[in-house]
Amino acid sequence: MDVWLFAASLLTFIYILLMYIAYVSQWNEAILRFVMELITIPIFLVGIATPLIAAFRLISKKSKNRRLSIITLFISILSAIFIGIVS
To answer: How far lies 37's CA from each of 13, 56, 75, in Å?
Structure first.
């Protein structure tokens, strides 16, 4: 479970980074824009749920790999900081 949380957190950060690059570079490809708009809400829902689940598992000591949980929370915080900087 911890690996999946880490992957979801990393996926969310990469998606936010890609959206920022697409915005700065002003990509005008219709297909890419459609796909990005289509997956925005699910990615952000995953981005919201991941740190909550990771924090709960870390606090309740159900996490099997404590270091991976801490890295997951760090990447989630980094994503939140990046959203705050670019918006």
So the answer is: 16, 30, 23
User: Residue 25 class from Cβ within 10 Å (0-12 exposed, 13-18 middle, 19+ buried)?
Assistant: exposed
Structure tokens at 83: 């959203």
Q: How far apart (Å, rounded) are the C-alpha atoms in residues 70 and 28?
A: 38
15, 81 contact by CB (below 8 A)? no
* pLDDT bucket at 20, cuts 50 / 70 / 90: confident
CA angle 8, 41, 36 (to 5 degrees): 90
Model confidence pTM above 0.90: no
